[in-house]
Amino acid sequence: MEKTQVFDVEVSETGQAVVDDHLMINEDYYMPDEQIMEYYTASAFVWMYDSYAECIGVHIVNENDTDSEKAVEVFLDECPIGYIRRSQKAELIRLIQKGKIIRIVPLMGGGPYKQIKNGKVVSTEIRSYVKLKIIYDTFRKTDESRKLICV
Fold first, then answer.
1. What 3-state DSSP class applies to 4?
2. Where are the domains of the chain?
3. Res. 69: pLDDT tops 50
4. Can you name the residues that pair with 114 across neighbouring β-strands?
């Protein structure tokens, strides 16, 4: 059975530059307020950026050279951008080690946005973020050689 879970990525300072490079301008953000009110429903968000990612991946690593504690490092187009939040990492490590992951979908966003509130277009901004939507199969198993076997 397929299930979905979302994991938060704590993006590093150097990773933030990589994330910013993957945010594309949304032309609608620059429409005049009158057009935004005409084309969008109340409470709709019109983000300055739309995101895309060519390749996103995860890898289990030691948190540091002297520690046996594991972490889940996140890569965007082969560049390390950060780690899965500490409170969520154990579950993701379990899914990786058991070979249950089917697909990883990046959820990237943030930055300036406009929203219709009380009949006016209001501009706001939030810090950009990265989350990973992990789609996994609860019945998928691996053997000792780590090859996937379907049951």
1. strand
2. 2-149
3. yes
4. 46, 123
